Amino acid sequence: MCATSSHRRVGLADVVRGRVLFGGDYNPEQWPEEVWHEDVRLMREAGVNSVTLGVFSWAKIEPRPGAREFGWLDRLMDLVHENGIGVVLATPTSSPPSWLGRLHPDTLPRDADGRTEWWGGRQHFSHSSATYRRHAAAITEDLAARYGSHPALTMWHINNEYCTYDWGDEAAGTFRRWLRDRYGTLDALNTAWGTAFWSQGYGDWEEVLPPRRAHYLNNPTQVLDFKRYTSDMLLECYVAERDIVRRHSPDLPVTTNFMPMWAGQDAWRWAGEEDVVSVDLYPDPRDPFGAQEGALVQDMTRSQARGPWMLMEQAAGSVNWRGVNHPKPRGLNRLWSLQAVARGADAVCYFQWRQSRQGAEKFHSGMLGHAGEQGRTYQEVRQLGAELRRIGPQVTGQHNPSQVAILHEWHAWWAGEQDGRLSREVGYQQVVRAWHRALWEAHITTDFAHPEHDLSAYRLVVVPQLYLLTDTAIDNLVAYVRGGGTLVCGFLTGIADEDDRVRPGGMDGRLRELFGIRTLHEWWPLGPGEYAECDGFRGTLWSEEIDAGTEETEDVVALSRYKGGELDGLPAVLRRGRAWYVSTLPEPAALRELLEGVAAGAGVRPVLDGLPTQVEAVRRGDLLFVLNHGREPVTVEVPGEYRDLLGERRVTDTLALGRYGVAVLSP
Amino acid sequence: MCATSSHRRVGLADVVRGRVLFGGDYNPEQWPEEVWHEDVRLMREAGVNSVTLGVFSWAKIEPRPGAREFGWLDRLMDLVHENGIGVVLATPTSSPPSWLGRLHPDTLPRDADGRTEWWGGRQHFSHSSATYRRHAAAITEDLAARYGSHPALTMWHINNEYCTYDWGDEAAGTFRRWLRDRYGTLDALNTAWGTAFWSQGYGDWEEVLPPRRAHYLNNPTQVLDFKRYTSDMLLECYVAERDIVRRHSPDLPVTTNFMPMWAGQDAWRWAGEEDVVSVDLYPDPRDPFGAQEGALVQDMTRSQARGPWMLMEQAAGSVNWRGVNHPKPRGLNRLWSLQAVARGADAVCYFQWRQSRQGAEKFHSGMLGHAGEQGRTYQEVRQLGAELRRIGPQVTGQHNPSQVAILHEWHAWWAGEQDGRLSREVGYQQVVRAWHRALWEAHITTDFAHPEHDLSAYRLVVVPQLYLLTDTAIDNLVAYVRGGGTLVCGFLTGIADEDDRVRPGGMDGRLRELFGIRTLHEWWPLGPGEYAECDGFRGTLWSEEIDAGTEETEDVVALSRYKGGELDGLPAVLRRGRAWYVSTLPEPAALRELLEGVAAGAGVRPVLDGLPTQVEAVRRGDLLFVLNHGREPVTVEVPGEYRDLLGERRVTDTLALGRYGVAVLSP
Amino acid sequence: MCATSSHRRVGLADVVRGRVLFGGDYNPEQWPEEVWHEDVRLMREAGVNSVTLGVFSWAKIEPRPGAREFGWLDRLMDLVHENGIGVVLATPTSSPPSWLGRLHPDTLPRDADGRTEWWGGRQHFSHSSATYRRHAAAITEDLAARYGSHPALTMWHINNEYCTYDWGDEAAGTFRRWLRDRYGTLDALNTAWGTAFWSQGYGDWEEVLPPRRAHYLNNPTQVLDFKRYTSDMLLECYVAERDIVRRHSPDLPVTTNFMPMWAGQDAWRWAGEEDVVSVDLYPDPRDPFGAQEGALVQDMTRSQARGPWMLMEQAAGSVNWRGVNHPKPRGLNRLWSLQAVARGADAVCYFQWRQSRQGAEKFHSGMLGHAGEQGRTYQEVRQLGAELRRIGPQVTGQHNPSQVAILHEWHAWWAGEQDGRLSREVGYQQVVRAWHRALWEAHITTDFAHPEHDLSAYRLVVVPQLYLLTDTAIDNLVAYVRGGGTLVCGFLTGIADEDDRVRPGGMDGRLRELFGIRTLHEWWPLGPGEYAECDGFRGTLWSEEIDAGTEETEDVVALSRYKGGELDGLPAVLRRGRAWYVSTLPEPAALRELLEGVAAGAGVRPVLDGLPTQVEAVRRGDLLFVLNHGREPVTVEVPGEYRDLLGERRVTDTLALGRYGVAVLSP
Predict the structure, then answer these.
(1) For C321-380, how does the pLDDT look when each residue is reduced to its tens digit (9 = 90+)?
(2) Of the candidates A30, A113, A123, which has its C-beta nearest C197's C-beta?
(3) Chain B: residue nearest A209 by CA?
(4) Could you give the CA distance from residue C467 to residue C56 in angstroms, rounded to a whole number?
(5) Does residue B244 fall inside a structural domain?
(6) Which residues form the Glycoside hydrolase family 42 N-terminal domain (chains A, B, C) (predicted)?
(7) Is the pLDDT of residue C2 over 90?
(8) What percent of chain B has pLDDT over 90?
(9) Chain A contacts of C203, Cβ < 8 Å?
C-alpha cells in the first residue's frame, strides 16, 4: 500500500558528504549578469554550498514554442561551479510560459465553478492536460540532456510545490480513467460511493464528473476520491519528469519540495517515489507555538524520509502572504535552522538567495535582503553558515529513531474534513498539532507513522484522530496492542472505512472492543469556547455519550468521567490494558500530563528531565541539541560532561543559554 | 387571491383514522434486502405505522433513459404492507438521475453568476426546463399507474422540499411568460418596476431577464417578481405531478413537504393546492428558544392547513448541516414530538428511518441510528411510538381555532429584505419570531393569517412587520379595527404597495390615520447592539421620528415616548382606540408585557395563569397539553381534576413535571 | 505629467455669477408631468437655482435603437427655464438601455472571473466596447445638437460616477493598445513588469491579458498598469463625449462628478480635462469623524480645481447603501453644506431633488423626501437655500491657498495596496485620513498636492504615505527641502519606483540621505490592536528597524525612540534639518502634537487659537467660517469685530454657537 519502504538507489548522503547543505533558491534571471558575480562572492562569504536553479526559468529557456535558450544557464552553471557551489537543478514545469496558455487553453485549470485559472501568476497548469505534459516532458528532456552530467549538478528538483486542482473537462476524463483503475466496474464505484443515496447511481462512465458546484452537498466519497485522484495525477506528473532526468543522471538523487503538512498530497505515497525527501517550512515568527510547528513538520518529514532530509525552503526573515508579516527577530533564523538540523535535516536552504525587487514576492525576505550586505539578515545568515560548517561532520547522516509514533494519514484527513459533518470546529491539523504539542512540551521526541506501517518498534503509538481507517490499519493497531504496544487514541477515530462508509456501531467494532466501548450512543460536539468538565481537566471540541459496559468487562477503567451536563458520570477517558481512548480534547496541560503518564508507563522517558517548556532538547547521533525558544536567558540541568560545538565551551551538568540560544553538546 | 379556502376533497383524516401517523422517510435502496426484514421488525416494535418511500429513487427506477426497474419497489411495498405499515409514496423528481444532466444539460439550473449546478448532490433540476418536466411527468405517470391502487398506499408525496432557483436562458423565457401573464403589456411592467429609474425601460419582451449579476443594485421589483415567479414555477411543477397521481388515485390525498418558514415558497398559495399540509421541522437542540421556533412553525402550518397537519420530517437526534450539530438530549425528541401533536399534528415523522452509512447525510440522525437497536435514540423512539398509540384516538382530528392571529406574508418578506434598504440588521424572520415569542411566553396560543384573510373571528390581530401591503390588505386591517377588532402593528408596515412602490408619506395614509400618525419624518434604524431608551423599556433595531399631531386628534395617545437622543419626547408606542403602533422592537420582556396587556384588554386570556415561561400549555380538543421545556423539574397549577393520558395518573390542581416532562390532561 | 495646470477656457464662475448654486439631480421621468409643476413650485420656495437633468435618461430618449424621444425633455427644459432655474445637462451614457446589452452583448463588462455584468442595475457598460462608444457618441451628439444652445443650459455633465472595470476580451485588446503606447516594445514591458520572476516573460503582444483570476498572486505591475489603464480608458470615454458637447456649446463648462477619494480614477489627471471639478460626498451621519472626512474631500477637490468647485451630490438625509443608514439629525445638513462652502464650494447640490418611490434607491433621501413638504428634511433644505442666497455674493469665487500641503497620488495608492505586501492592516486611505485629521484637529487648513507639483509656495509639506514615487517626485521633494521647505514624511514612502520595483536599500537612497537613514534593516508591521511604545507616544500599524548612523552624521536627531521589544532604543522619529521621518503611525493626539510643533517651526499658525477640537474654523476670502460639529453649545474666542452673515448679529471677540451651529463672520 505504502511505498515508503522501497530502497532508495541514491540519496541525500551522496550529496551531503559531511557538509550540511546551505543555500537556497537562486533566480539570477531577474538580475543583470554583473550582479551574478557579486552573488557568488557573497555566497562564498556566507558559506553557501548549494543553490537551486531553474525553478521558474521555463519562459527564459523557451521564450517561443520550441526555442531553447541555454546560453545564460550554461554561463551560470559554470560560474557557480567555479566557485565551489553545487547545483540542485529544477525542471521549470511549475510555471509554464504565457504562450503555452495562449496557444493551448486546454493546459489551464478550471475550478469547481468552471472558472479558468489564467497565466500571470504561477502554477497555471492542469495536471491532466496532455498538451501540458507533452511540453513539460520536452523541456525536461532537453534540460536533462544538456546538464545531466554537468559537474556542478548534485541533485534534480522536479517542479515546485505541487498543489493544483482541476475540475475541467479533460480532468473529468482522467478522473474517470483513475476511477476505472480503482474500481474496475461502475457497480463497484456505485457501491463505494453509496450512490443509492440521493439517486446518484451512474449507468455510464461518461456521467461521472469531478465534484463540481452542486445545489447542495456533493457526494463525500466522490470528493474523497477526487482528492486521492488529484494527489495521484500530480504524482504522475512528477514521476514522468523524474524518470526523464534519471535517464540522464542515473547517479543523482531526485526530489520535489513538499509544502509543510499540505492537504493536497499524500506525502507517504509521494515520499516513496523520491530519492530525497524535502520540505518547505514557514512558521510565523510571531506564533508562540511556531517552534512546535517546526518540530512537527520536521518530525513528519524525517519520518517520510526514514532518515536525514532536506529543508528546501525557509525564510531568512518575513514572508509576504500572511495578513501581517513579521521579520525574524535577531537569532530566530539561527535557532530554527539548528532545530531542523537537530531533527534530522542535512540541508538548510531558503527561498531565496537574493530578495526580488519585482514581482509578487518582492516582500518575501531573501538571505540577502533589500538592505544588502550590511543588513542584519545577511549578517546573521553568514554567521549561521559558519556554524553549520563547524558541526557538519558530526551531525550529517545521523538518524535516531524514536520510541513514540504519532499516526497521521491523508485519506483520513480528506474524509474527515468534509462538509456535512458534525462539527466544523474540529480541524484535523489543529487536533494533530495539539497532540504533538503535548509530547513536544513533555520533551518526548516522536516519529510520525502511517497507520499501516509496522509499529512494533515503538513503545507508544498515539492516534490524535483518524476518522477513516482501513481494515488493514485497524488490524495493525489491534495487533500492535496485542503485541505489547501501548496505544492512545483520540476521538473520531475508526469511524469510517476507506470508502467513507460509517462502520457499524458508529465506530469500528474491533476498536470498540479494544477500548472497552459497548455502545457509542451519540457524539456531542462542543461549540466554540465551550468546555466539557471532566474529572481533573476540561475537555474541548468534542465529547461522547459512551456506554462502557463496565459490569461485564471489568478490565475497562474510566480514568476520567464527565461531570455535569448531559454526560454526567459517563466515561471521558477509557483504559483497557494498554489501550487508551480519549473521547474529548483535554486542554493542553492535561493532555501533556496524560501523555507523560502513559509514556512513563510504556517506558518512554523525556530527552532530559526537568526542562522548562520553552526549552527543547533533541538527540541526533551522539549529540544533544538544547534550544531555548524563550526570549529570556535560561539555565538548565544537563547531567554529565559535554563540549558545546557551537560555543566551543565545556559544559558540566549545567547549561546557560541566552535568548534564542542553542548548544550542540558532544559527550 | 389566496386559495386556502378551497375545499379539500380528501385529507389527512382519511389516512389517520384515529392513529397518530408515526414513521418517516425510508430509503431501503441503500441497503441489501436482508436488512429490510430487520427494518420492518424494528418498525413494528417501535409502533411505526407509516413510511415514506421513493423520495430519492429515480435513478434506481430508471437507471437508463426510459428503463423501468420496479421489481425492488414491488417487493418493498408488499413487505411493508404485510407488516401493517402504510406507505406515503413520493415522486422521485427532486433528484434526477445523472444521465438526465449529461444527455440534457438544459435540465441543470444556472445561478445569477451563470454558474451551472451540476449533478452529484441533489435538486439539480431547473423548474423551467421543458425536458425536465417531460421526464418528471413520465416517471410520475408510470409510478402512479403501477402503485396508484396498491393497498399499502395511503398518500402521495410530490418531490421533496422544493427550493431551487434558475437564472438561465430557459428560465428567462418562462420568466417572460410569467410576466406577460401578470402584466399583459410591457408598459404595465415598466410602470410596476419603475424602470424610469436608472434608464431601465424595456422596449421588447426579449430584453427582460432574471435579475442576474449586475454592476450595482438590481431593480427591486424585478427581484421581487423573480421570487414570486420562482415560487409559481415550482408550484407548476408540483401541480403537474399532483394531477397525474390524482388521476390514478382519486381517493388518496396529495402533499409536498415544506421547509419551515422557507423564503422560497408562498406557502399560503401552495397550501391551497395540497390535500395535506406537511412540514419539515429542525430546531437546534441547543437553541434556548428551539421550542418556541417549533411552536411558531407548528402554528404556521396548522393555520395553512386550517386543521390537523403532518410533521413530515424531524430529526430523532442531530442534523448535519449546522456548524456544530448537537444530538437531542434524553427526552427532547419526545417533548418536541408531543408539542407538535399539541399544536395540531396528526403525524409525527422523521427523516429518516435508518441512518445512512454513506452519502452526504450519514451524520444526520435516524430513528435507528448508527448505534443500532441498543442505542438510546432508538429506545426513545420506541417509547414515543407507544405513547402516541395511547393518545391517538383522543387527539387526532381535533382542531382548536385561536383568538389571536399573527399576520405573515411572503411577498412582504421578499420585498422587505432586499439590498438597498435602510438597515440590514432588520431581519423579517427575527422580527416575526420576536413577536411570536412574546405571545408564546405569555401562554397565548396564536394562529397565523394572511393579511387578506377574513380576520373577524379573531379578538386580537398582531402585525410584527409587513413592509408590503396590498390595498385590499390595508382595507382589511382598517375594517377589522372598525369592526371591533384590536390591532397591534410593528414598524416598517404598510410602506410599499404590491409593486414595492413606496406609498405617499412613506407609510400608507389609511394606516397613518388609523394609528394617529400625522407625519413620519424619518426612519432611524439602530445599529448592532444599539438601544433606544423609551419610557418603561428599551427599543432595539429601529426607531422613528413621528409627528403624532396630538393637538388635532386628541384620541391619539403616546403610551411610551423616546427618552434622550434625537427623538427625545417623540412617541415610541402610539394608540388610537383599538389600534396600536409600535415604532421600535421592545426588548423581549417589554414586548411580552405590552402584548399581555393588549390581549387582556381584548378579552384574550392565557391558556393557564401563573405558568413559568419555560412551561408551555396548549389545548387540543378537550385535552390540555402541559410541556416542561426546562431541564429542572417544575410544579404548576392546573385548577381542576384531570387524568394524565401519558402517565396514567390522576392530577388535581397541581401538576409535577420532570425535566422535559409532558402531561396530556383529559378532564 | 500632470495636466492640472492647463488653463480652463470657461469655468464655474461663468455659471455661478454671485450665487451659490443650489439644487440637485432631478429625474422627473419617474413622475407624471403634473408632479413637475409641484416640483418647480417647491424648488422656487426652497431657493433652488440649478438642477441636473438627464443622468439616467438614455432609455427614455432612445427607447428603441436609433429612436429619439426629446419632447418630454423639451417641455421640461422650458418649464425649468421659465422658473428661473438653470440646467446642468448630463449625457445619459452611464446607464445604457436594455436593448443595447441585448443586441450587443459586447457592450457588457466581464469581471476577473469572466462573469458578465448584466443590465438591470446601472453602469453595465464596458469602457472598451467600440459598440458602446459609438452609441454613446451618437446620443451625445444628438443631445448636444438639440440643447447645446438652450437658454436654460448652464453646464454639461458627462456620464455619472465613472467607476467600472472590464477584464473581458475586447478590454484585453485595449489593454494591449494602452501598453504598447506606454512601453513601445515587449522588452520594455517585460522589464517594467519584472516578468523574469515566475517565468512570466511575454514573447507576443497577444499573450498579454488583464490580470484575470490566477492560481496565486498576479503580477503586481500588471495589476498596477491595469488600474492606470482603467482610469485612462474611462477618461477616453469622458473626453470623447466632452469634445462633442464642447463643439455644440463652446462657451459652457463641462464636468463629470467624482466619487470622493475614489480608487478607480487618477483624479489629478482627470481634473485637468474638466472645466469644473465636481464631487459627490456622503459621510456617514453617525461617523464621529464624518466632518473631517468631509473636510478632506473638500480640500482634495479644491486642490484639484485650484479654486472653487462644485459639490454635485450629497444626501439631504440618509443614503441606502450602508449596513445601517441613518438620517441626518436636525441641523447637520446645513452644517455640512456650509462646511463645503467654507472650503471652496460654489455649488451645494444633492442627489436628488425628489426622493424616488420606486427603484433601487427609493430609500436614499431626497431634498423633498417621502414625508413631503411638511417633512423636516424639506423644511431644513428650504432654510438652507435662503441662507445660501444671503451669503452667495460674498463667498463665491473666493479662493485662499493654504500654507500646508498633503501629498496624495493614485499610483502610489494602487501599487501600495496590492496583495503580497507586508501588512493588510495598513490601508492607504486610513493613513491619509489620520494625517489629515491631525492637521484638521489642529485647525490648520491644508491643500492636497501631487508629488510632482511645484511645492515651493508651501511652508510645510506632509507625506502620509507614498509607497511609489517617481524619480521626478523624489527630486522634487529633495529640492523642496533644499529650497527651505519643511517636509514630514510617514513610513512606507519611496519604497518603489514607478514600475513598482523596490528601490535599492528598500527605500530610495535620496530620501534615506535626506532623513539620515543609513540602513533600513527590516520593516516590523504591527498587528491589529498592537502598539509600539515610543518615547512620548504609542505607535500603531507599523514600526521599523532603522540604523540612523548617528556617529557619522551628527545632524541626524532621533526625536523619539522605540522602547522595549525588538526595536528597543532604535529611532522612531528622525529629524535631519527640515526633513522629518516618522516610522510608525503615532496615535491621534501624538500625531497632532507632532504636526503642530513642526508647523509652528515652519511658521504655520492655526486659523484660530484655542479652539476646541470639534469646532472648525476656515477662512474664505475675507470671511471666517466657524462651525460647531458638536451636539453641545460652545463659546469660542474670535478676537476682533465681526458681523455674522447668517445670524445678522454683531460678534465681538466671543462667539456662541449652538449645537451644529455655524457663523459666517465678516470683518
Answers:
(1) 999 999 999 999 999 999 999 999 999 999 999 999 999 999 999 999 999 999 999 999
(2) A30
(3) B120
(4) 39
(5) yes
(6) 25-390
(7) no
(8) 97
(9) 59, 63-64, 97-99
Q: Which of B161, B387, B409, B441 is catalytic?
A: B161
Nearest chain B Cα to A500, which residue? B358
Q: Does any domain span residue B141?
A: yes
Shared domain for A375 and A460, answered yes or no, is no
B656-660 long-range contacts (CB < 8 A, ≥24 apart) are B657/B615, B657/B626, B657/B627, B657/B628, B657/B633, B658/B628, B658/B633, B659/B331, B659/B628, B659/B630, B659/B631, B659/B632, B659/B633, B660/B329, B660/B330, B660/B331, B660/B332, B660/B334, B660/B335, B660/B628, B660/B629, B660/B630, B660/B631
Please give, rounded to a whole number of angstroms, the shortest distance from the CA of B323 to a CA of chain C.
Answer: 25
Which residue blocks in B286-445 are alpha helix, DSSP H? 290-305, 332-342, 376-395, 410-416, 428-441
pLDDT, mean over chain A: 96
| Rounded mean pLDDT, B529-555 | 89
* A4 band by pLDDT with thresholds 50, 70 and 90: very low
End-to-end Cα spacing for chain B = 41
Kindly state the average pLDDT of the residues B522-548. Answer: 97
DSSP-derived pairing of the beta strands C537-540 and C531-534? antiparallel
Q: Which of A170, A241, A313, A498 is catalytic?
A: A313
Kindly report the pTM of this predicted structure.
0.97
Q: B135 and B83: one domain?
A: yes
Contacts of C95 in chain B (CB under 8 A): 198-200
Give the domain-ending residue among A372, A395, A418. A395
Active-site residue C161, yes or no? yes
Domain annotation covers residue C10: no
Nearest residue on chain B to A218, judged by CA atoms? B121
For residue B5, is it within any domain? no
Is C178 in contact with C233 (CB distance < 8 Å)? yes
Q: What is the pLDDT of residue A667?
A: 93
Res A179 pLDDT > 80: yes
Contact between chains at A99 and C203 (C-beta distance less than 8 A)? yes
Q: What is the pLDDT of residue B4?
A: 44
Does residue C313 have an active-site annotation? yes
Same domain (yes/no): C362, C414? no
Do residues B593 and B627 share a domain? no
Query: Nine-digit cell at C505?
Result: 536599500
User: Which structural domain range is residue B661 located in?
Assistant: 615-666
Q: Which of the listed residues C575, C601, C627 is the one where a domain comes to its end?
A: C601
Give the nearest partner residue to B197 out of C164, C325, C358, using CB atoms. Answer: C358
Q: Please give the tally of structural domains in chain A.
A: 3
Residue C478 and residue C359 in one domain: no
Q: Which residues of C touch B524 (CB under 8 A)?
A: 326-327
Q: Among C215, C502, C520, select the one facing A124 at the smallest CB separation.
A: C215
A212: which chain B residues are within 8 Å (Cβ-Cβ)?
Answer: 116, 118, 120
List the one residue out of A284, A375, A373, A384 whose CA is nearest residue A341.
Answer: A384
pLDDT at B531 over 50: yes
pLDDT tens digits for range B597-632: 999 999 999 999 999 999 999 999 999 999 999 999
**Options B62, B117, B293, B313, the catalytic residue:** B313
**B434 and B545 belong to one structural domain:** yes
Among chain B residues, CA nearest to A195: B359
Cβ neighbours of residue C7 closer than 8 Å, sequence gap 6 or more: none
Give the domain CATH number at C625.
2.60.40.1180
With cut-offs at 50, 70 and 90, classify the pLDDT of residue A74: very high
Question: The domain spanning residue B493 has which CATH number?
Answer: 3.40.50.880
Say yes or no: C188 and C304 in one domain.
yes
Same domain, B357 and B449: no
Report CB contact under 8 Å: B97, A545.
Answer: no
Give contacts of B200 with chain C, Cβ < 8 Å.
Answer: 59, 95, 98, 119-120, 359
